[in-house]
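quick one, 675 residues, struct below
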Amino acid sequence: MSEQDQGLAASPRDWPRALFYVALLFSVFQIITAAFHPVSSQILRAVHVGFLLLVVFLCFPARGNAQPWQPMAWLLGLAGMATAFYQWCFEADLIQRSGDLTDSDLVIGLLLIVLVFEAARRVMGIALPLICALFLAYGLFGQYLPGDLMHRGYAIDQIVNQLAFGTEGLYGTPTYVSATYIFLFILFGAFLEQAGMIKLFTDFAMGLFGHKVGGPAKVSVVSSALMGTITGSGVANVVTTGQFTIPLMKRFGYKSAFAGGVEATSSMGSQIMPPIMGAVAFIMAETINVPFFEVAKAALIPAMLYFGSVFWMVHLEAKRSNLRGLPKDECPNPWAAVKQRWYLLIPLFVLIYLLFSGRTPLFSGMVGLALTSIVILGSAIILRVSSKVMRFVFWIVLGLLCAGFFRLGIGMVFGVVALLVAVCWFIKGGRDTLTICLHALVEGARHAVPVGIACALVGVIIGVVSLTGVASTFAGYILAIGQDNLFLSLVLTMLTCLVLGMGIPTIPNYIITSSIAAPALLDLGVPLIVSHMFVFYFGIMADLTPPVALACFAAAPIARESGLKISFWAVRIAVAGFVVPFMAVYEPALMLQGDSLLATLYVVAKALLAIGIWGAVFTGYLQARLSWWERLLGFFAGGSLILATPLSDEIGFVMVGLLIAQHCWRAHRAQAATA
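---
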């Protein structure tokens, strides 16, 4: 089913009125609970899932591309909301009789489980529900299995209690993160997108790189990296920036599959790009109990290296195919673009400051969202004033009012927003701005649906793993196969991520693999955050892996090419970046897990060299086409730089030096001969 056929994919102004107001109410509920915490954590999670179910059943049909049959859609959606209100109404009773379910508890719990499975099937297809169903079956019938996989056995009421009424099932940590941090940051990105941040980033990237060799493809890489700072969603990035960059690449002679592959690969990097990153980063922070700042810090250099590797691969492919950029006079002035929309950067810089100063993601997200709405509403008012002095005074006063948030609380911010809304209501063009804000709230609900449903469903895996302790069994298998060989264990973990990613999104991929493989890596001496980042990185790569490469299939309608062909190009473009997580495991300084700046600089330089040589190997081009033996030598040289064994670095440096010197000499001779 294509996104264009789903109610969620249309413009909010074209949505059915009931659906529009449900999505709006969803966003308002999330903002109020984030700001004032009027309900308990359990109720917040339950209502969040209830809203997700209601929106899904109103938008996604049971099969095909037709609109859902509304009577059945409302019946299923309201049944989902009923499970939430049951948790709300009987919260105290459920706590008192925890583990001792009544008949009505059992019915509500079973209904919730069935509805979440069905919602996930409609949104993401059958792959993830099937995997979760296997875990559910293991919880129910695992006592009949032989060997280490056998457990003591659990009755259906125990399974339902674990999944539907606790915080280690459907309402587990991923759902909590989805209902708090993730939703706020999704809203933050939606507001900035509606306000014109996409045009700012694309114009800036076009101005800097559009006229270079391979310019249109480089614009895709840079604009996706910039969009990643506010969205954290790979597929959303493909759909937004891809509408501009893919046709641009095709217009300048790039193959459709290559154009789609560049955009898909670039966009997936948004999930690891600070400050917002993807939903996995917030789940990781909660799972391993570290501040989000630490996760963002660990991801900073790998994210830059990821986009650097994609940029390098694009450059080499463009040189190999002799693909030129746009005429310089057709490229916008990048600094003029910044000057025109500079105010949109204020919330982003404030958010970065708050996150990296140790504030919680919830606090930072709330401030960022509030500040974004204030900037959008304020600019709609003051940009109509010609006096620069008045503009300056206006922004100073608004800044002072916002600063009052830290002393007077969130109520101050809501008061400022209400005042600006009132002014916009009465000025010319102000109501258009208010419409933009409403659409941003609705868009936030739209983008939250696939993330939230995935977070809820993987709670089945979390609940069963927690109940049965099967994760330690799988970790033992990995350790046994690897036989205390770290490299082999890393390869097995990578393959697990890539295989799982052929059918499921990054979030469940990370949760499954981190539950199974991360403990094994930890036992082999890999630092906790590095082991989880390793799994996260290859979970992202898995969305580019055929046959079900989600980002590539999102690019397919825009590129007018098969998603499978795009995925092969995407893997080829991304492959040089495979060195990054391996190198981080052997030298954690790459993820800033150390005190030595010199060690970090050394490993970054080594990583850049390895990426550079592997990029040439897999494209088959540097200054000229590489011969087969040069590519073989380059492959082993890059591999030697990854390993942190005695003399491996020295051998790698020598091999790279000899290869580059020889290749440049050969290319120079060939050029002189044809001159």
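DSSP finds 33 helices and no strands in the chain.
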